[in-house]
Amino acid sequence: MLNINVLLCGILAFYCIHNAYGFLDVHIHFSKGGLKGKMNQEQCSHLDKSMVKREEWDAMSPRQTFETQGIGKDVIIWQTGSETCNLIGLGQSTCERCLHDAGCIKRVILALQKDDLDYGLDDIKYHFLIDEEGVIYEGRGWDVAGQHAVGVNARSIDVAVVGDFTHTGPSEAAQDSLNRLILCGMRSSKLLYSSQLIVTPSRAGRAFYDVTAKCHGLCVAEPQK
């Protein structure tokens, strides 16, 4: 029997990729990457300095690392999901406050790393993470290959927005920081200028996917110079 996702890819001319669990997923190809504006060197330097580095969230050392092979081709967007706060013992009633508190977010990211290590990965799976306030956290960083899917690990960058976006999309601040991060990745030759965003319901959450589909990319204004 023909897989329904394969059928959709053929009928709707969507692009298909294998996700970490081995089945096909559907994503929309965003023209020009779905990004807004440009970033200059000064803006990118400020973004890098304001990023929360690994040592600031008490990251554990990776078991091993493998360098990326060439410039990044795709940016795969994730949500950390509905179980995010459970990793540090918080229920839904206190989770929302946690996800807007810098100290609590650092605990969450460390817990995500521990969870990935327990799963058998060499490090936290994401290259970068962004919270709802728009703060960017360093994960693997630009130059370390991912581990999410065989065949695309060496040429893609994984960025997670912290939270669950099944029913509600991410904040404009989070999307703006994501937009700026990718633009600076292109400027510093970490990403191809032809890079595309990959936003799927299974990875990023249905509401996140719907928001980007509606805006044909990230729903942000162009960065001010």
Automatic annotation (TrEMBL):
Origin: domain of life: Eukaryota
GO annotation terms (biological process): peptidoglycan catabolic process
Position of the signal peptide: 1-22
Pfam families recorded: Amidase_2
Keywords: Signal
Domain Peptidoglycan recognition protein family: residue ranges: 49-204
Record family assignment: Belongs to the N-acetylmuramoyl-L-alanine amidase 2 family.
Protein name as it appears in the record: Peptidoglycan recognition protein family domain-containing protein
Taxon lineage: Eukaryota, Metazoa, Spiralia, Lophotrochozoa, Annelida
